[in-house]
Each structure stands twice: as structure tokens, then as C-alpha cells.
Amino acid sequence: MARLKLQLPSNFLFRTEIPIRIGDINYGGHLGNDAVLSLVHEARLRFLLHLGYTEFDIEGAGIVMTDAIVCYSSEGFYGDVLTVEVGASDFQQTYCDIVFRLTNSATKKEVARVKTGIAFVNRQTRKICALPDAFRSKCEIPSP
């Protein structure tokens, strides 16, 4: 089977640094796949806070993760600091993708690319709802 390839946006909206913790290391001695999702969850929270939102309130809607793709480029180790770049893409009526590039801050070597599908939900009814236009406006990068 062919490897997945994840295209990233030409520009990212947000950048943060997150150190790899001892609990992020698997029995192979490097960054575990489960930990990558935990790290991008942290980056997504920081991204939303940067925009003035939380996962429970994006213009009145909450979000849930619907899917995830992780594509590894190199290993990460305990003590490495990762630069995590965050962007949004594939805006649809009720969902979008949040995409991430994780790079070793010291070596500049890419560690992973991640895409998480995000659906918008009405927290009272627990039903899928429309993607807020104001969120889309804040996240879309104008074409050059």
C-alpha cells in the first residue's frame, strides 16, 4: 500500500513550541503516535485561544474531532522542542480540517504532518451545526 501524503498550506496562521515530555516516548525510545495527537490537541487549543475561542465556544458552537491522519518524517526524542505550525483548510458547511506541521526547533527537521477533521456542534442539542462564518473568515488565508 502506498504511503499517505499530506499536503500542507503554503502559510500557517499560528505557531507554538511544545517540548516532548517523557510520557510522549514509546517503547521504541521515540515520540509515540498517540502522543502526536496529544501534542496537536494542545496546539489546537493554543490556536483557538489565539483566535479568541475555546473548543466549547467558537461563535456559539463547539467542536469534535472526526478523523485524523498522521504522516511521520523523522523521529522525535525526549527533550526535543517541537515547533508546531497550525492552519485550517477544506472549509465545508459543517466542518473543516485543522492541519499541523511539527518540526524539531533545533535541527529544523520536520517530524510529522497531521490533519484533524473538525465538525461543529450545537452543545445543547449535541447535533452537527453550521461552521461559523466568522471562524472561517479568521482562518482563511487570502490568495497571493
Give a short summary of the structure.
This protein has 144 residues and is α+β, with helices and mostly antiparallel strands. The chain contains 2 helices and 6 strands. The protein starts with 13 loop residues before the first strand and ends in a 5-residue tail after the last helix.
Please give a structural write-up.
With 144 residues, the chain is of the alpha+beta class. It has a single domain, classed as Roll (Thiol Ester Dehydrase, Chain A). The protein is 18% helix and 35% strand. It contains two helices and six strands; from the N terminus they run βαβββββα. Strands 1, 2, 3, 4, 5 and 6 form a six-stranded antiparallel beta sheet that branches. β3 and β4 form a beta hairpin. The protein starts with 13 loop residues before the first strand and ends in a 5-residue tail after the last helix. The mean pLDDT is 94.
Write the layout of secondary structure elements.
Blueprint: E1 14-19, H1 33-51, E2 62-72, E3 81-89, E4 95-104, E5 110-122, E6 127-128, H2 133-139
Antiparallel strand pairs: 1-3, 2-5, 3-4, 4-5, 5-6
